[in-house]
Amino acid sequence: MNNKRDLTAPCGLGCFVCDIYEENLTEQMAEFIHQKMGVPKEEISCKGCRQQDGKHFHLSPGGCATLNCAREKGVEFCCDCTDFPCSLLAPLADGAERYPHNIKLFNLCRIKKVGIDRWIEEEAGDVLKKYFTNKFVVGRGQE
Description:
This protein is an all-alpha fold. 34% of the residues lie in helices and 3% in strands. The longest helix is centred in the N-terminal third of the chain and has 11 residues, at 27-37.
């Protein structure tokens, strides 16, 4: 399970572009997280949502409710579900400056529109980068 499709969480987050994904994690990022959050360095590296069964230091102890729901409903991505979008994907201001949870709905809509393969190749990395670096302008969106 090392391909980018398998490394895209049901919620639309691209694990393969995440800073804590095992192939992307730098010593500087590991040290930053260790210092800021007190997480032992050996617990920071992530293999991806599906590969770790939704369990990692940054998730709730019970794992990921969205991953569990997708598995129960037998869908690969939330946008394949008849209940999409649901409250598990609702955007929140809390933690938005640290976690990319507010891009899930956008990613899933793009996956539904352009397909997972095109989204992986053309959009996944840019969406995450823009989320953390671009400015929001009321009435215009991203600057």
